[in-house]
Amino acid sequence: MSRIAFIGLGNMGAGMAARQAAAGHQVQAFDLSGLAVERAVQSGCMAAGSAAKAAEGAELVITMLPAGAHVRQVLTEAVLPGVSKSALLIDCSTIDVDSARALAAEARDAGVSFADAPVSGGIAAAEAGTLTFMVGCEEARFPDVQAALKPMAKAVVHAGEAGAGQAAKICNNMVLGISMLGVCEAFALAERLGLKPDKVFDIVSQSSGQCWSISSYCPWPGVGPASPSDRGYEGGFLTKLMLKDLKLAQAAAAAAGAATPMGAQAEGLYAMFDRLGYGDKDFSGVLQLMRGHLDELDAEARGGR
Ligand code: NAD
Fold first, then answer.
1. pLDDT for 2-46, tens place per residue?
2. Among 168, 178, 209, 281, which one is least packed by beta carbons within 10 Å?
3. Domain match, 7 and 57 both
4. 199 included as an active-site residue
């Protein structure tokens, strides 16, 4: 049994902390929201009064926070000043590559190990312990990171040195954001050409246009395996989170001098969908924007389908 500090108990962190507690670890949990801490206690964690208190005497500190600024503040101001030198810090949030690298350097200066380990998989995978982790850390430290993440993971992949986990995450999500738009555009065109959506699914998912966005997460309701489109685009991967990841990808591309015109287009389209008021819908709902049928999303929001 290890003593773990878990900081950030939101949609993702709640399930992840519960998995660590279920694996028999002593989990000191902290969140700015008292309600989130109460929920964590109900799932087997112990309440800590602050991030610094949670980290006191911890062998492992896990953060699952909204963005780079939150992780920097928590690790720099609350965790690093008092944490044990033998502790391992793992940030599982999706943040900018520069923040991840800066935190790794800061931790190294303080004599503490740090890994960036963002995840693929949503709330259901966090609760089931089936997330995929993409890890940036020194190769020699990877086995420890892998063992620490095991109760929450389906797979733990070493992407490279510090920041590489975040780099892998934004590249993956840029592919996902772009491929979903391609699938949605194709469905919108097929509709105009008089093709039935189930036929589009049957053909494309067995042809060269096949990709996860159509085969496993079809944006057209009632077609293909169960996905958020079948429940009014509720749950799943929220448009505002996809937009966040695409913004991170564009910022990284600008800093690195990479040309990512498709990523830029994708960012613009999800930004438009978000500004129209659909940031809390699954990102595959962008299909209805392409079809010119945003009314379908509103009907679903009112329980009209
Ligand atoms: P969330 O907003 O539900 O949870 C974040 C939690 O952090 C909140 O409970 C908030 O109160 C807490 N928090 C903020 N500042 C804090 C501080 N200073 N100290 C302690 N707690 C603080 O977000 P989420 O959906 O759980 O996502 C967390 C991270 O995981 C994000 O970086 C997100 O991009 C990434 N992610 C989310 C999903 C998803 O499907 N939700 C999937 C993959 C990755």
1. 999 999 999 899 999 999 999 999 999 999 999 999 999 999 999
2. 209
3. yes
4. no
Residue range 103-131: mean pLDDT, rounded = 95
Give the β-pairing of 26-30 and 60-63. Answer: unpaired
75 and 213 in a single domain? The answer is no
For residue 192, count CB atoms less than 10 angstroms from its CB and return exposed for 0-12, middle for 13-18, buried for 19 or more. exposed
User: Sorting pLDDT into bands at 50, 70 and 90, what band is 304?
Assistant: very low
- The CA 7 to ligand 1 mean position distance, Å, reads 10
Same domain, residue pair 124 and 238: no
Q: How many independent structural domains does the chain possess?
A: 2
Q: Among 250, 64, 229, which Cα is nearest to 149's?
A: 64
**91 contacts 71 by C-beta, under 8 angstroms:** yes
Among 32, 97, 240, the mutation site with the greatest number of ligand 1 atoms within 8 A of its Cβ is 32
Structural domain that includes position 272: 168-301
pTM surpassing 0.90?
A: yes
